[in-house]
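pinned: reference chain
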Amino acid sequence: MITTISAYIFLIAIIFVILFQLGLAFGMPWGEYAMGGKFPGKFPFAMRIAALIQILILIIISTIVLTNAQIIIPEFYKFSQTAIWFVLVFSIIGSVLNIITKSKKERMIWAPVSIILLISVVLVMLKQ
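pinned: its structure tokens
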């Protein structure tokens, strides 16, 4: 049960991140809340494309977590047992980067979200 709840918490948090990235990709002036605040206002075109690529990565990651929690795509469960380690490393790196960012605004929003994602992945991996 903890595994399922953790997977859904992960999903809710990742949807929040995806919506943010989608906003950046479509020109919302939220640049100071991402990439260390390096691009205040609207992201330049190349960074908008990067935001779209990030969305694809986040969808893949969430699919791995939900599959590992045995919520979706049971045929790929075995693959997810290995792939979840990539998600763990991705979550650790994301948490560290969001904790140490120079942008206070980014840190205030994304450090807690990153930590929630990390804890959720660990709990899914433990399968309690």
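why pinned: The mean pLDDT is 96. The helical segments are 2-25, 45-68, 77-100, 104-126.
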